[in-house]
Specification:
The chain is mainly α. It has five helices and no strands. The chain has helices spanning 11-38, 49-56, 59-92, 98-128, 132-146.
């Protein structure tokens, strides 16, 4: 009697390895999420001051600010692109000229300072034009932004 061996199932070990890998991914995602939620210091950290002031404004005010400051923003983008090119050249230069890099960093700081001043000026104009009731509503929205409350709780626009 001839002995017929069962055909080997080569796919079985591969299937087991794939299954184990998927299970490990799921367990890793669950454990990672649990640890992140439990030890989340990010929730306790307030947002940046300027971004919170901006996000708490009503949508139409944010749109108006963007429209009014778009030219200044575009100018900053154009300068930034040229400054990155100059920075790349300065970093590749031999000998390295730290003073040239320092000058570029100073230019960028000046551009950012001008943009921040323009934003603050526009923000203050808008807040000054608000009625007392609108300022209270704005303060409530600002508090929501700072404490990262759900948009479902309050209407922001």
């Amino acid at each position: 009697m001839s002995e017929q061996s069962k055909p080997k199932r080569r796919w079985m070990p591969v299937l087991l390895i794939v299954s184990l890998a998927i299970n490990l991914l799921v367990v890793g995602a669950v454990v990672g999420t649990a640890l992140r939620v439990r030890n989340n210091d990010h929730v306790k950290t307030p947002p940046g001051f300027g971004s919170a002031l901006y996000r708490a404004l009503p949508k139409h005010e944010r749109q108006a600010m963007r429209a009014e400051l778009s030219g200044l923003h575009r100018q900053g983008v154009d300068h930034r692109a040229a400054d990155f090119q100059a920075l790349g050249d300065a970093l590749r230069a031999e000998p390295f000229a730290a003073d040239a890099v320092e000058a570029l960093l100073g230019q960028q700081a000046q551009v950012m300072s001008e943009m921040q001043s323009a934003l603050q000026e526009q923000w203050l104009i808008r807040v000054s034009a608000m009625s007392p009731k609108e300022r209270v509503e704005y303060a409530d929205r600002l508090e929501d932004v700072v404490h990262r409350k759900s948009k479902a709780g309050r209407k922001h626009d």
